Each structure stands twice: as C-alpha cells, then as structure tokens.
Amino acid sequence: MSIFSKNQTKKIIVDAKNHGYKPDVVTFKQGKPAQVKFVASDNMGCMNEVIFKSLGVDVNLNGKKDVTIDIPTDKPGIYDFACSMDMFKGKVVVK
Ligand SMILES: [Cu+2]
Predict the structure, then answer these.
(1) Where are the domains positioned within the chain?
(2) Other CB atoms within 10 A of residue 41 CB
(3) pLDDT value at position 1?
(4) CA of 16 to the centre of ligand 1 (A)
(5) 47 alpha carbon – ligand 1 mean position (Å)
(6) CATH number for the 8-94 domain, one of 2.40.110.20, 3.40.30.120, 2.60.40.420, 3.30.450.20?
(7) Which pLDDT score, from 0 to 100, does residue 5 have?
(8) Which of 7, 19, 10 is nearest to 66 (CA)?
(9) In angstroms, what is the span from residue 61 Cα to ligand 1's centroid?
(10) Could you write out the DSSP letters of every residue in 61-94?
C-alpha cells in the first residue's frame, strides 16, 4: 500500500425523518486516515447530536450541512455512535 494513498472518507446520512442512519455501518481499512461525514437532513430533533462515547466525541450539527469526525485507524476496532437520546445507533468498523 502506498504511503500516498488517499484518505478514506465515508458519508452517513442522518435521516431524521425515517429515524435512522444511512448507512448505519461503515467500514474502514486499518492504517489509513479515515473520516466519517455526517450529513444533516430536516427536522433533526435528537439526531442533531452525534455521540461516539468510546472516542469522547460529541458533536452537534446545529444547522450545518455536515460534520466530519476523524476515526482512529491505528488498530482494528468497532466504534458505536448514537443520537443524543441513545435511541438511534450505528457503528464504524476498522479492520
Ligand atoms: Cu434520539
């Protein structure tokens, strides 16, 4: 693998209308910089906030079009995320 290989970026739509994340699981390869971009929809409600407890990440969309979160890829792992009420969930897998 080239050290010049591109960052890995994946989009997750925060689909508040249908109460879910699309997709709700994204996978990255270990060892390359990775980012998840959460893309807002309308009437976000509790989905306005995205929380990755295990990463200490807690971000608000607050009318922004999207927010980008860096995912550590130094080792394999599974990072769960959820809305502010811990109702709607998804996960980021590094392997
Ligand atoms: Cu919620």
Answers:
(1) 8-94
(2) 14
(3) 47
(4) 9
(5) 5
(6) 2.60.40.420
(7) 60
(8) 10
(9) 14
(10) -TT-SEEEEEE--SS-EEEEEE-TTS-SEEEEEE
The whole-number pLDDT of residue 7 equals 82
The alpha carbon of 87 and the centre of ligand 1 are apart by a number of angstroms equal to 5
The percent of the chain in helix, strand and coil, each rounded to the nearest 5, is: 5, 50, 45
Task: State in Å: Cα 10 to ligand 1 middle.
Answer: 22
Per-residue pLDDT of the chain (95 residues; tens, 9 = 90+): 445 567 899 999 999 999 899 999 999 999 999 999 999 999 899 999 999 999 999 999 999 999 999 999 999 999 999 999 999 999 999 99
For residue 95, how far is its CA from the centre of ligand 1 (angstroms)? 28
Which two tokens mark 22? 């699309």
